[in-house]
């Protein structure tokens, strides 16, 4: 096995049991992109790697590269983000973001801007009272980082096509948006995450409507058939 020379930061996206005591975790790392790590003995309460193999956790890893998986040589937990689990809405929206990263990123291809965005967003999910707005902000910013930013020209009344964004006419793939909707979407796209609470108050039902549209846009443009959380949002 080849040991990587430097530590890398990684966020655990998901986990899968392997055998009786081990598990495979998919990790979005800052230096190597999305990778799979075999964590031997991780199911044991006494495992030294138990804490660094939990979903949502931000950890520092020194890795060894095997034929099919990476293995942990050394590790340290930095941010558990455990409080996300204490609120149901925060949990399902944060889980969706991990799934978006997992299904849209390429193995071994780093995207440091996306990594930093995910790290910061998860930190806010520990205490946010607006999980829908926070998820929307992440999704729009992430789409911009990977070259799929939708058109969001502000008009009095327009239609949002899941193929490209704002269009001037209605088609089978479009949804009606108001000027207020577009101002809100632009505000969270270009604003800072820490300023979300200062944006004009928007009713939750409308945020859910906008979020469902953006998820349809993500599925269409990133060629994702479904998310595990789909039934929870319908």
Automatic annotation (TrEMBL):
Residues 10-80 form the DNA replication/recombination mediator RecO N-terminal domain. SUPFAM superfamilies: ArfGap/RecO-like zinc finger, Nucleic acid-binding proteins. GO terms for biological process: DNA recombination; double-strand break repair. One of its GO terms (cellular component) is bacterial nucleoid. Keywords: DNA damage, DNA recombination, DNA repair. InterPro entries: ARFGAP/RecO, DNA_rep/recomb_RecO_N, NA-bd_OB-fold, RecO, RecO_C. Belongs to the RecO family. NCBIfam families: reco. Involved in DNA repair and RecF pathway recombination. This is DNA repair protein RecO. It comes from Peptoniphilus harei. The gene is recO.
């Amino acid at each position: 096995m080849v040991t990587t020379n430097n530590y890398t930061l990684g966020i655990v996206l998901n986990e899968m049991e392997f055998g009786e005591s081990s598990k495979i975790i998919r990790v979005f790392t800052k230096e190597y992109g999305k990778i799979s790590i075999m964590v031997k003995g991780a199911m044991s309460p006494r495992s030294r790697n138990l804490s660094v193999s939990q979903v949502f956790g931000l950890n520092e890893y020194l890795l060894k590269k095997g034929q099919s998986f990476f293995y942990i040589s050394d590790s340290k937990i930095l941010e558990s983000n455990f409080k996300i689990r204490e609120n149901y809405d925060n949990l399902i929206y944060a889980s969706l973001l991990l799934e978006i990263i997992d299904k849209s990123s390429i193995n071994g291809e780093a995207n440091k801007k996306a990594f930093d965005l995910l790290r910061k967003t998860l930190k806010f999910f520990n205490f946010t009272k607006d999980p829908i707005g926070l998820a929307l902000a992440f999704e729009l910013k992430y789409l911009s980082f990977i070259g799929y930013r939708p058109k969001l020209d502000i008009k009095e009344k327009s239609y949002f096509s899941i193929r490209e964004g704002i269009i001037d006419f209605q088609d089978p793939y479009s949804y009606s948006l108001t000027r207020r909707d577009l101002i809100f979407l632009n505000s969270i796209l270009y604003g800072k995450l820490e300023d979300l609470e200062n944006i004009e108050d928007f009713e939750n039902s409308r945020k859910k409507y906008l979020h469902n549209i953006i998820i349809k846009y993500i599925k269409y443009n990133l060629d994702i058939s479904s998310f595990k959380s789909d039934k929870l949002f319908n």
